Amino acid sequence: MKQLERFLEWGGTKKEIVLLAVSAAALLASIAFGSVLPLDPAWIAIALCGVPIVLEAIIGLVTAFDIKADVLVSLALIASVAIGEDFAAGEVAFIMQLGGLLEDLTVARARAGIEKLVRLTPRTARVIADGAESVVPAEQVRVGDLLRVLPGETVPVDGVIRAGATSINQAVMTGESLPVDKGVGDEVSSGTVNQFGSFDMEATRVGEDSSIQRMIRLVQSADAGKAKIVGLADRWATWIVVVALAAAVLTWLFTHELIRSVTILVVFCPCALVLATPTAIMAAIGNATRHGFLVREGDALERLAGVRIFAFDKTGTLTYGAPEVAAVHSFSPDLSDEQLYFCAASAEMWSEHPLGRAVAAGYRAGSGRPALGSERFQMLPGRGVRAVVEGRAVLAGNAELLRENGIALPGEISHAAEEALRDGCTVIYVAVDGRAAGMLALSDTLRPSAAETIRQVRQTGVEPVLLTGDHESAAQHIARQLGIAEVRANCLPEDKLGAIDAAQRAGRPVCMVGDGINDAPALKKAQVGIAMGGVGSDIAVDAADIALVNDDIREIPHLLRLAKRMMRTIKYNLTFSMALNFISIALAITGVLTPVVGALVHNAGSVFVILNSALLLKWKKR
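^ that's the sequence the OP posted. Answer follows.
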């Protein structure tokens, strides 16, 4: 008894495989020994595969008057058993359960994204009251409280900086690859990470109103609002049942031969119709896996075939999400561009800031030798660095750093910086021995395959769109390089979700491609979400329907074409199976087919459907 209980608690899919294996063996035994045994072994298949189908059909009809394909299957099973065609009943039940198993295997049930977002929620906060600092649970913070955030800590609630300067990693909210410098009067959001300096802030939005909690609600609402595709077999089931029953009743009335009516129900049993979609999806998923995609939802490719817009995030998706030195400009007669680069790289040698590390790494890669490092290095949060390089006092950072040290920016440097900013670059100003010497422009690196990917997506008749949390100048610069006409910059998670919702309400289904936590609501809301599995956040991957494991966006056009090819294959399968059914009905009405022969004929159609679907496994557009 305990062994039976453990079996019933066993994983559903594994149990289905065992039951199908036992049923297949029973059907083989029925063919070999059914005529000599007192009880036909086909009854094992009827009990294991047929009874669940009949029960599900009855429950659907009684509770919701839900007429699906299993209603016609149940009628065929009961009629076959009633006239003693046990093998036909067992065979039909087996084929139907096999189709159900294939469909189940295409559906991923693991959804952990919301739980991981919840774990990002800050647990505690440092509250300053009457000059004393105390650590309290984050949910106890009230609007107006003064909080202190130390380097490396997560901002507990939304607020405004009242003292101090720092750099904030806002990737969780905007997807920006670089920390953003913040000072007095600047807003900070819960869930973002304080990189370097400590600061005091006044709480403005707490609890359920904070940014990270709004993000969680966005993901939940987007998931609940996404429509699920109903299988074609179930969509057509009502008409199939009506036609089959009418044909069976009319045949019995005119011929008075019950066996012909039962044969009609058996041959019209939608086995091939049920197999048409899951077999094609399984084969297409196998093909997608070979091209680096992990398809996490069974109907994701079916939905992908119908998209009209491909919305791309910028940072980490079309770009690598890592800054590189794009240009070095010296405006000092005493320093060449290479010497200015050396001074800046040496000053940034010990910097923890991503921009500083990028400058030092870029100099090492470009010159073939590392910078020498510096003396009296000082990190200035929210400003830059100060150091002495080979006896020269070097400042490297933003314009505020130079202004606070009484160093004026000449017009030629300001003009060059403005051009770099228009191109979406980040600028580091360099001063040597108290005078502005030049500037370095850093930019995110475009993936080499991005332009070709966008071109091929457009060739399929789908319009590419750029949705990014980055600044307008950076977004427009990337869009110009890639030939993307529609751009939305400075997008918070709710902005991306709103843009996708508006497009889909207008009848233009969207596929969203992103990598960050901030993309999770949009990935959920879109008709299909594709996450960058290599560099992307695991929360984004959990929110998406498909993960691009190796981050090779060159494969995205193949996936789109594969989805469209899969839908054509499904339509071919359905057309063939329905045509075969109607021909078989004509033969059953005339008495040419018996229930067993009819079952074999229409199951031959199921084999054809499976073989046709298998062609998708290695399909690729030449």
